[in-house]
Amino acid sequence: MRFWQWLPFGRVPSLSAPALARLLEGPNPPVILDVRTAGEVASGMIPGARHVPLHELAQRLHELDLAPGSAVVAVCASGHRSKPAVRLLRARGFDACELKGGMFAWRRAGLPIATGGQAAS
User: Fold this and answer.
1) Domain 11-111 carries which CATH code?
2) Which of 45, 76, 85, 103 is flagged as catalytic?
3) Which of 37, 74, 76, 106 has a CA between 20 and 30 Å from the CA of residue 16?
């Protein structure tokens, strides 16, 4: 990826927290990819989310074993780190978008938070 693609600004496809919650209840939920640090994830994450810190994503993407074209929603704290994650995922052929406003928006919406053993890694 080019340098500008790693910038935490600009536009990428996004979903609101309520829209994502509805998709997660549906028959074909997207993969939730939490790109925050381990310390941030320790405070809770979206139930069922997978955790790969943004700085490790390019090297560890194969570990997620995602089918080409899979729907993936990148999540960070506020929506800055998810932008480069979405750009990387889309460049690798995934149908990726971000959670608009990140975990701050998810928490503000009063949606469920998994901690400890409830979250996938």
Assistant:
1) 3.40.250.10
2) 76
3) 37
Q: Which pLDDT belongs to residue 68?
A: 87
Tell me how far CA of residue 112 lies from CA of 4, 24, 60, 105, in angstroms.
34, 11, 27, 12
- What pLDDT score was predicted for residue 10? 75
Radius of gyration, alpha carbons of the chain: 13
Q: Is 23 exposed, middle or buried (0-12, 13-18, 19+ CB in 10 A)?
A: middle
Task: Please confirm, yes or no, whether 97 is among the known catalytic residues.
Answer: no
Take residue 49 and report the two structure tokens written for it: 């989310």
Specify the amino acid at residue 82. Answer: S
Amino acid letter, 60: R
Domain ranges for the chain: 11-111
DSSP code per residue over 17-62: HHHHHHHHHSSSPPEEEE-S-HHHHTT-B-TT-EE--GGGHHHHGG
Kind plus residue range of the DSSP H or E element containing 73: strand 71-75
What's the whole-model pTM score?
0.89
Residues of the chain with pLDDT under 50: 1, 3-4, 118, 121
